């Protein structure tokens, strides 16, 4: 249990062009083009605004896009509604959105209690037949993505900041990456049905962003079964979320 957390800093990816590729991956993984439209879509932690604008300007889907963040780092702002927020509380009525996206946000919100509240708020604002997308770095990734240090998140919590300082990469480690069991307990406690999409997301990432690389060719040759055996080690954990009584797929 984390008893205290250092001051948290924004770690938003501000390259709007890369956010379009990320948004396309989200669109495909959630099969959004086949959901009834218009879609009312919420992005939590909008960063550059690239994902929000992608859906707002989509050429075949009709999306009403709302985005929130604790700071305004947007480089693109047209076509969607934006709100500054404090903490994890969302300033929206219950059952307000068809789609809720939390892309690399939960590791930044604070301790276990704050993470649980973040998930509770997602569920609260999601419509009964809505869908959620949650992505978070896997604690067991080899290289921590925010500070580019190998094995940083593997260490016990008390050792992470000293390691960061010793390597001259920062003063405080302010992220909380999760493991599959920990995340799935949080999702269950929040009342979500969930499906692990990490294998599908890994394939989609290479097909969209690096289609001609050796990694993409290797993934095309591998069946899902061996990849699913290793999904607890995939660097990014990605889940599809549903409220429990909407007939969506269960855990997987």
Give an overview of the whole structure:
The protein is globular and about 50 Å long. The strands form two sheets. Strands 3-2-1-4-5-9-8 form a seven-stranded mixed sheet, sandwiched between helices. Strands 6-7 form a two-stranded antiparallel ribbon. It has eight helices and nine strands. It has 252 residues and is an alpha/beta fold. The protein has two domains: 191 residues, Rossmann fold (3-Layer(aba) Sandwich), CATH 3.40.50.150; 35 residues, no CATH class. Helix 1 packs across helix 6.
Whole-number average pLDDT? 89
CATH class of the largest domain equals: Alpha Beta
The termini sit apart by 27 Å
Largest sheet: 7 strands, mixed
Q: Roughly how many Å is the radius of gyration?
A: 18 Å
Total number of distinct structural domains: 2
CATH architecture of the largest domain: 3-Layer(aba) Sandwich
Provide a brief overview of the structure.
By secondary structure, the protein is of the alpha/beta class. Helix content is 32%, strand content 20%.
Which key phrases capture this entry?
252 residues; 8 helices; alpha/beta; 9 strands; Rossmann fold; 20% strand; disordered N terminus
Topology of this structure?
Elements: H1 16-29, E1 39-44, H2 50-56, E2 63-69, E3 81-84, E4 97-103, H3 112-125, E5 126-137, E6 143-144, E7 149-150, H4 157-166, H5 180-189, E8 193-196, H6 198-209, H7 214-221, H8 224-229, E9 236-242
Helix pairs in contact: 1-2, 1-6
